[in-house]
Amino acid sequence: MSQLGLMLRGRVAGTREQRGTSGGGKPYHRIELGIIEDVTDGYGRIKEVVHDLRLPKALANDPAFMRSVSDHQDQIVEVKVWAEAWAGNNGARITYHVHPEAKLNPIGKLKAA
């Protein structure tokens, strides 16, 4: 895998399944990887922001990748992602997708500051 690209660093929250109906009336099913980033608000306090990264079906169905998610729960990792920009009802939006060849690269076990 290329070493170039967009990497997201944060603490592994786990995975979740989302099912619903799109604005166009089509049903969807997706698996998302939660990555927690600690950010400082305008008052110097730290708050957690969870980024929901969409998993490609190949990774969502890969037992080794899903085991890696469990093994790295609450650990800081880097994961390669790609960004999809789109127009929403309230303006520009962006969705992050885990790169199809991505691995979770552990950075540490301490909570990010």
Describe the structure.
By secondary structure, the chain is mainly β. It has a single domain, classed as Beta Barrel (OB fold (Dihydrolipoamide Acetyltransferase, E2P)), CATH 2.40.50.140. Helix content is 12%, strand content 57%. The protein contains two helices and six strands, in the order E-E-E-H-H-E-E-E. The protein has helices at 57-60, 63-71, and strands spanning 6-21, 27-40, 46-54, 76-88, 91-98, 105-108. Strands 1, 2, 3, 4, 5 and 6 form a six-stranded antiparallel β-sheet that branches. It is globular and about 40 Å long. The chain starts with 5 loop residues before the first strand and ends in a 5-residue tail after the last strand. The model has no long low-confidence stretch (mean pLDDT 91).
Number of domains: 1
Helix fraction, binned, reads 10-25%
Helix-strand makeup class: mainly beta
Overall pLDDT confidence: 91
Give the arrangement of secondary structure elements.
Layout: E1 6-21, E2 27-40, E3 46-54, H1 57-60, H2 63-71, E4 76-88, E5 91-98, E6 105-108
Antiparallel strand pairs: 1-2, 1-4, 2-3, 4-5, 4-6
Explain briefly what this protein structure is.
The chain is mainly beta. It is 12% helix and 57% strand.
List keywords for this structure.
OB fold (Dihydrolipoamide Acetyltransferase, E2P), 6 strands, six-stranded antiparallel sheet, globular, single chain, mainly beta, 113 residues
